[in-house]
Structure formats: C-alpha cells, structure tokens
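User: Epimerase. Structure?
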Amino acid sequence: MTTKRILVTGGAGFIGSELVTQLAAAGHRVIVVDTLVNGKRANLAHLHDAEVELAVVDIRDRDAMARLLRGVEIVYHLACLGVRHSLHDPFENHDVNATGTLILLDVARRAEVPRFVYVSSSEVYGTARWAPMTEEHPTFPMTVYGGGKLAGECYTRAFWESYRYPTVVVRPFNSFGPRSHHEGDSGEVIPKFMLRAMAGKPMIIFGDGTQTRDFTYVSDTARGILLAGMVESAVGGTFNIGQGREISINELARTVAEVIGHPDAPVIHDEPRPGDVLRLYADSSRAQQVLGFAPTVSLREGLQRLREWYLSRGVAIEALLSEERVHNWKKEEITRL
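Assistant: Predicted structure:
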C-alpha cells in the first residue's frame, strides 16, 4: 500500500480506534474526527501524534468537515449513535446517523475525496429470514438505529448511482474485543457479561436467551473495513463483515463463564429488550472473494484476549462495572451515569 491521507469519523470509538491503529501501522497519515460523546481520547493514547491527528468535530459541521477533508484520499465513516440510544432519543439518533451521513457524503464529493467507505450495521437486516445472511437478504430494521443506518446506506449507494462518486458500504456484524463499550447506552453484551462474571455478579440475559448473534473480533472487523477502502473492485458494492458462526446468548454466557474460569457463574433472565433482533448470522463470502477478507480470531480466543486486556489495565473490575446501566435503553437509567 502507498501512504495515504485518510480521515476516520468515529475514530476514537471502539471499532474506529482499532481501524485507526491498523491504518497508522501501515504507514498512513490519519485524521480522526470524533465528538467524544462515545469515543475516548484514551483509545488513541497508544498512537503517536505524528501518525494521528484528533479533531473534536461534529460530522454535521459542513465548514469544519470541508477544511478537514482537503487532501484526504479515503473517508471511513463510522461516527454514529448506537442502537440503545435510538430507543430513548430516536430523533437525535436519526439526525446523526442518517442526516449526518448525507451531509458528509455531499461535503466529501465536493472535496473530491477519491473513496468513501460507509460503515453500516447488521441491524439493517432485522431478524434473519434465512441464514447465513447474504447481502441480498431483505432489510427490515427493528429500531430507529437500524432504520437510520439503512438510510445512510441508501444515500451512500445513491451517490455512486447518481454521481458515480466512488462509495462502498460495509455491514459489520457484532464486534467485540479491547476498548469495547460496557458503559451507559453504548454497553454491549460481551463486555457486560465478562465484567459481571469477573466481579462475581450474575450475567443478565434479556428475554429467553435463544436469540443468536455472529460475533467478530474487533481486529478482524477493522481489517475488513480497511480493505473496503483499498480494493478498487469494491467500489459500488455492499459487503458483510462477520465471523460466520452463530451462537445463542445462553451459550455465549456459558462460554464467557468458562473463559474466566468460573463455569458455574450465575445467570439471570430479565425482560426482553424492545426491538431486539432475534437472529443474526453472516455470510461474508462476498467480502472474502472481493476484499480478501477472512476472520482469524475465534470467539473463544477473542474472549480470552479481552479478559487479559481487562486484567492488564490496572483498573478495578468493580470500578468499570459501576459505569454499567442494566436497562441501557431507558433514559431514566442513562441520566444517572
């Protein structure tokens, strides 16, 4: 790869910071755009200022984005508000995720940025009608987050069809690993399970636990996203990025318990979450054929790496767990954070 000037929105977040790390390691100059609502400066602390520049900017700020995009060769657009956030603030969620994407596409095209990669979500599919799910699977989102992500996809593809502006859409399935979110309305199941089990508290499953997900280790997810910006034949395409293994939330809890060395760690069931997708299972064969993507880290190995990362941080597990909100789609719980 030749050295490029690359802009990553949401680059101080979980997946974004891993993508930035991989880009910097490959020798690229990276501009990170992040409001730090969900992202953290600490996620970029291991990188040198000569490699990575952080701009605390909202993607909806046209003037600021136009300045930052000068001379940029690839935009990786990850900035968004999450699925639980959409349950308590649907209009803000839509404005950032859908309208913000349209604004950024327009500014990037006017700046003549040669490639735009939009990072969508498997949530656009809703519950699987068939599995594994190809990119031709019907899109039937069950939350405003999924709807906003799908709108962003449609805008991204429309810019290719209408203007021949070179865009790519990627749909990552559920990712996990170091720097994943356990806190507030960004909290995800694997870090929440692991921290609870490590602290001797019960893992909480919403609903009966038969719902399934396809979990991909973050370094694999980020590599798939990176490739979408580098492979010329990806332009105009839509690509699933997933492990290609389906696991129920009940089985996930058992696996987390085994990895931390407490196979009898307790589990309790709570009320189902609104808009919860019941089944996700990726077919990533298109990404394999076009991008050369293949996952390399298994679920169990990734869980072991995550456990080791938590233990290496020098922060008490109980202190991290204090940032968790159990019903993190309810605004009254989030406001206590």
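The chain has a mean pLDDT of 96. Residues 257 and 264 are 7 Å apart (CA to CA).
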